[in-house]
Amino acid sequence: MDLFTHVLVAYLVTFGIVGFRPEYLAAGALGGGLPDADALFFPLARRFPILRHHGITHSLFGVTLVAGVGALVAPLLAPGSVAIYFLVLEVGGLCHIAQDGFTHFSVPPLLPFSDRRLELDADRAINLVTLVVSVASFYLLLGVERNRLPFSVYLATVYLLMAFFAAYFAVRLAGRIRVGQRKRALGDFDHVAPTTNPFAWLVLSERVAGGRQRTTWARYVLGRGLVAGPYVAEGLLEPSGSVGLPASEEEALARAYPLARRASGVLDSTFHFGEAFRDPGGGWTAVWYSLEFTMFGRAAGVRVRFPADGAPATVRRAFYRPVRTSG
After folding, report:
1. What is the model's pTM?
2. What pLDDT, in 10s, does the model give residues 119-151?
3. Which residue in 5, 120, 155, 286 could disulfide with 256, CB within 3.0 to 4.6 Å?
4. Residue 230 burial (10 A CB sphere; 0-12, 13-18, 19+)
């Protein structure tokens, strides 16, 4: 989930626990956002992997440690109970872990004792719907309504937001369960991946054999079944050593695949597919896209170009719009 949604959901849950107590609401909201402070550890994460994004700060141990320290410091800033400060900071952090585990971006809640992952694949890591609702909600609560409108309007807004998120998570989870039950009946599919639309899902399978990886995927809409695909993308796991211009679309994709995976950790950690095209100048362009990191019709991907003169391939990472297929 995006940071705004993490903070807002923690704020709403804290309100449900302590009511309108501004000091505790602020602490709970802060607790909901603090796990993502691990972005500050980026320079150290290469040496100490436990400090990586979605590492120790997204665990029960990390959340509890932060809540304990915060509960001791918070009363110095705003008078209140140490026990209640600990409670709301802990709950805010747990909400963050639960929301990230709800998506396709896994978290390790048992670190440092176990690296076992929580990943329900019920939503995208960043969904435009919840992002827009969360940003608009902060504008309403802290800008339009604060000290301007009757308290009853604020309460109505909070309860409406509670109802929205409860319904949103319920719809997402119900869809994930339904597609999970159906995936085998739809074909040789092992996995389910969410899209921005809670009623549209991807069903996928990956197979590795003979030094090649083959991904098959299709688009499934609740109530309609498969509406696109299945599509197949296949590539080499290691560079082939081939030089010169690829002879076909299949060869361009296969040779580009190991180069793309080396260039982007996103491809190596998410489901993906590829396309290849003949350039006007006679060369080939192959693009491998992530099926899970997408926004505004574009997907995180890697473009590999094979020049017509047989020169070494060029590799570039960016967000690209698929040409022949969409996911």
Report:
1. 0.80
2. 898 998 888 889 999 999 988 888 877 778 888
3. 286
4. middle
HSE-up of 260 (CA within 13 Å, CB side)?
34
Q: At which residue do the structure tokens 């109530």 appear?
A: 223
Residue 287 and residue 204: Cα distance in Å, rounded?
Answer: 19
pLDDT tens-digit map of 41-59: 877 877 888 888 888 999 9
* Distance between CA atoms of residues 104 and 270, nearest Å: 9
Tokens 């800008």 correspond to: 143
Most confident listed range (37-41, 106-110, 289-293)? 106-110
Amino acid letter, 156: A
Q: Residues 57-91, buried b or exposed e (16+ Cβ, 10 A)?
A: bbbbebbeebbeebbeebeeeeebbeebbbbbbbb
Cβ-proximal residues to 192 (8 Å cutoff; 6+ apart), any chain: 121, 176, 179, 180, 183, 201, 202, 203, 204
> Which tokens sit at 189?
């599919």
Contact 317, 263 (CB under 8 A): yes
